[in-house]
Amino acid sequence: MSKLSVRDLNPKGKRVFMRVDFNVPMNDAGEITDDTRIQASLPTIQYILERGGRLILASHLGRPKGKPKPKMSLKPAATRLAQVLGKPVAFAADCVGPEAEGAAKGLKDGEVLLLENLRFHPEEEKNVPEFSQQLAALAEVYVDDAFGSAHRAHSSTEGITHYLSPCAAGLLMEKELEYLGKAVGNPARPYLAIVGGAKVSDKIELLQNLMKFADSVLIGGAMAYTFLKAQGVEVGKSRVEEDKLDLARDLLQFAERRSIAFLLPEDHVVAEKLDANAAAEVVGTRSIPANRMGLDIGPATRAAYAALIAKAKTIVWNGPMGVFEISQFAEGTMAIARAVAGSSAVSVVGGGDSVAAVKRAGVEAKISHISTGGGASLEFLSGLTLPGVAALTEK
Q1: What confidence tens digit (pLDDT) does each residue in 181-208 have?
Q2: Catalytic residue among 52, 352, 374, 383
């Protein structure tokens, strides 16, 4: 990794401003229903505290639109963090101003403070320099462990780095950059990209970038029908982006010129409508009925894709193979999850739906790296520069 790591710092006696991603789901009672993101930042938090750092944690939660909203307070996150850390976590009712400054300055070595939701201030998302300076004034060193927010140029991810030095990557950020960097930089071959989801338009840059590196691309999800229609296949009532047919043809021609194996489903689970109770059947690609829509890849496609997955040395997977939220259209995505988990390849899974599928299949422990940043991992794999990464100090 070309960026400075928290391992390169000596935090003892220093106030460390650490951007974390505590954007956790909560129920109406204000209780955290999934603390995965808090757990993910624990290694960096413990690393700094064990070395005598005075830790100031900052995060956003939800979309409060620049105003304080009690339901989006990070106070429950402070309570949960204290439970998992086994030590007190102080909480400041604002992220800037006298209370935050007093709490930050009062920290002793090995103590931790969580600031209130950064997005209670509109200046955070607007990356206003004065707000960035106020955040920077709380600390002496900056650590970013919030990869999921690295694609946003906000005050706490980019602006603050102009007023604090050094600026280092946390252990979670470091792991993300290492695995995703390998996936687009120097991958072991054969390199296999699996891309699913509803729209080609959402994944254009991802596909274009992965096709610079990949030996094979496996396509699933509703986007497959835009590619099939671009090849002149009748796809019934399946979802098609009519305005992206030329783009789909361009991508297919690019794959042909570069000798990339670009695989589309050969059979499909179809139904008259997207409904858990709809009667589903399996049909071949050339025989999708006019009154049916494709909602999952069929068994022959699952087997063909699994055979390629078994031979791969690097796998990047983004996007489901069908409407996996409905159990009768989930088997394609589950089969791919099991195949990737069973492979000896370095596997990187990114994007909320693919991550959810891996968890639902119970195979997350067998994936080399599950990216915590949906949008950020998509942009990184698409070859885009992430402002929150670019802003960190070079080694």
Answers
A1: 888 778 899 999 999 988 888 888 889 8
A2: 352
pLDDT of residue 171: 96
Q: Which residue from 6, 7, 8 is spatially nearest to 18, judged by alpha carbons?
A: 6
Active site residue 148: no
What are the CA-CA distances from residue 35 to residues 32, 72, 94, 353 (Å)? 7, 15, 22, 18
Residues 222, 225, 230, 236: is their CA dihedral positive or negative?
Answer: negative
Q: How confident is the model at residue 336 (pLDDT cuts 50, 70, 90)?
A: very high
Report DSSP letters for 255-310, one per residue: HHHTT-EEE--SEEEEESSS-TTS--EEEEGGG--TT-EEEEE-HHHHHHHHHHHH
Q: Residue 94 corresponds to which tokens in the numbers above? A: 């604002």
How far lies 43's CA from each of 141, 174, 242, 247, 286, in Å?
A: 18, 12, 47, 43, 52
Is 292 among the residues known to form the active site?
A: no
Q: Which residues pair with 5 in a beta bridge?
A: 169
Which pair of structure tokens corresponds to residue 117? Answer: 């939701």
Q: Which residue type occupies 328?
A: Q
pTM beyond 0.90: the answer is no
The catalytic position among 15, 51, 199, 239 is 199
Q: Tell me which of 3, 19, 37, 292 is the catalytic residue.
A: 37
- Confidence at 239, pLDDT banded by 50, 70, 90: very high
The answer to whether 352 is a known catalytic residue is yes
List the one residue out of 395, 387, 361, 363 whose CA is nearest residue 161: 387
Instruction: Check if 375 is active-site.
Output: yes
The span from the CA of 40 to the CA of 29, in Å, is: 24
Task: Pick the catalytic residue from 52, 110, 181, 375.
Answer: 375
Q: What is the mean pLDDT of residues 216-235?
A: 96
